[in-house]
Every structure is written in C-alpha cells, then in structure tokens.
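This follows on from our talk about sequence and fold. Can you supply me with one protein entry, sequence and fold together? Could you add the entry underneath, on a fresh line?
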Amino acid sequence: MILDLLGGLLLTAAILVNAYAFLDALKVRRMTALCLAACFGLWLGLQMSFYQAGVFQNGFAGLFPPIGLMVAAPVAATGLAAWWFADVRRALLGIPMQVLIGLNVLRAFGFFFILLAAGGRLAGPFPQFAGWGDVLVGVLALPLAVRAARREASPSAIAGWNALGALDLLVAVTLGTLSSNGFAYQLLHYGEGSAAVQHLPWLLIPTVLVPFYLVTHGIIFAQLRMRDGAGAAK
C-alpha cells in the first residue's frame, strides 16, 4: 500500500535523523559514537529479526505483548547506565536541551495513526490518543526548541511540555497494549485494535522511536532538576 511505503520512508528518515543528531550532540569520542551507532543498528536489526520470526504476532503465549518489552528495555538500559557510570550521565546531561526538544518535532508523523484508523487498520481509543497526542507534542516542540536555543523558554514551559510528551507516550503504549488482540489481559476490544503496529513499517514506532523519545524526556527532566539544584545552591 502507498501508506505503508510512505510511512516506511518517513519513519526510516526520522530514525536516521534522530540517531545522527543525538550522537552528534552527545559529544563523545569518535570510537564511542561508532559503538553506540552500532548498538543502535543492532537494535533495529533485532526488531526486523523478531518480526520475521513472528514474535510480535504470536507474543509470549499471549501473557505479555513483546512490544512492551521492546519499549522498556532501551529506557531501562539507558537509565541504569546513567546511574552507574558518571561519564555516561555527564554526556547525556550535556546534550543541549534545544536539541532534545527539537528532535520531538518529528513526532508530528503520529498523524499516520489517524490515517491508519481511517483506513480500518487501527481501532478504538489507541490511534486517536497516540496520533493526535504526538501531533500536538511535535507541533509545540518547534517553537519551544527555538525559544530554548535563545534562552527565552521558561523552565515551567519546558517542564509542562516535557510532562505532556512523556504522558502521551505512556498513554499510547498502555492503550496499544490493552487493545492488542490475543493479549490475555486485553481490556479494550475494538476490531483491529492496535494490530497495525505489530507489522512493519509501523512496528518501528513502538520498538524504536517510542523508547528513544522516552529517553529524551528523561534527560530533559534530569536537566531541569539539575538547574533547580544549581539555582537552590546559589
């Protein structure tokens, strides 16, 4: 389908832009950046392999949708690495806030969820919340990133947008899981439910882009707390 082709192209572009911009802003040694890029590529390849093996369609005997694990694993790994290693924490906190906010502009591609719902390939509250929520967060990210670059954005505005962005992702993941046909604890029964995101190219949204954006929100939250701490110390 044309929608799948267009979605695949734009999602791939979004992943590449995010990876390049994030690694470039990380300010680590070249070899470290190459290793991180390799890990990112391996994670992407792992999702393709799991998809070919039917893991996302069959699940773990219906008891736990594998997509949920794919969302949580990178976030948990990044958080633990930042907690245990001061160099990792320092590198993440050193990423300019306007870059982290600006990367979220690409979440406006969440409009594809609305198109998939209109085509009968997603149903229920999941595509509406995930789609319009991402569009809103992405549209708001552009002017906020510009203001942050000019040091004109207030901490409260950044914190409010950051909370909205993180909540949008958490709600989308929750609704998508509870709408997953075949899930033992499915609570939302609406036809196709979240079936489309169990297939490529849409599978790349929850398994690659969602954990990436959750990490950006976590870093922004930590940066804001660090600013508050520095202000209190004065």
Remarks:
- The CA atoms of residues 197 and 203 lie 5 Å apart.
- The chain has a mean pLDDT of 91.
